[in-house]
Amino acid sequence: MFETVVVGADQSATAAEAVRRAIELVKLTGGQLHIVSAYRPEHFTTSGGEELQIGSGDLAESVLADHASRARAAGVEAHIYARSGDAAEAICDVAEEIGADLIVVGNKGMTGVRRVLGSVPNSVAHHAPCSVLIADTAS
User: Fold this and answer.
1) Residue 3 covered by a domain
2) Given its phi and psi angles, is residue 94 left (phi above 0), alpha (psi -120 to 50 degrees) or beta?
3) How far apart are CA 47 and CA 108, in angstroms?
4) Backbone angles phi, psi at 15, to 5 degrees
5) 87: containing domain
6) What is the pLDDT of residues 61-118, one digit of tens each?
7) Which of the residues 71, 83, 109, 114 has the least number of beta carbons within 10 Å of its own beta carbon?
8) What's the structural domain count of the chain?
9) Model's pTM, two decimal places?
10) Residue 22 sits in a domain of what CATH number?
11) Are strands 102-106 and 4-8 parallel, antiparallel or unpaired?
């Protein structure tokens, strides 16, 4: 049974649907929900030559807080992870760290040129340390 479930999330409707489905699954199994959001820090150089790094970690934390609030409203406790870097890598890393049984991702990016060139669901499916559920979030 899938008792430790990781779901990737951002501010998109696709991610919200993936999180909703992960919450429903965890409710059925009585398991644990772990929500991961990745962000990429931006690097800037000032006119004085000083290099600054400005991250979108605050946005990731806000997105995670919103998803965790929805999970709590559904009666599910959620653990949250904001990670700097590639989304698929962050999701797989957390899944490996916690010994997840299942990763849930939405199917955004699974068609057209992104399917060939790569997408988060494709990358997770190829590198996950556990089972993967790619939820149809378009219906």
Assistant:
1) yes
2) alpha
3) 39
4) -65, -40
5) 1-41+54-102
6) 999 999 999 999 999 999 999 999 999 999 999 999 999 999 999 987 544 444 443 5
7) 114
8) 1
9) 0.84
10) 3.40.50.620
11) parallel
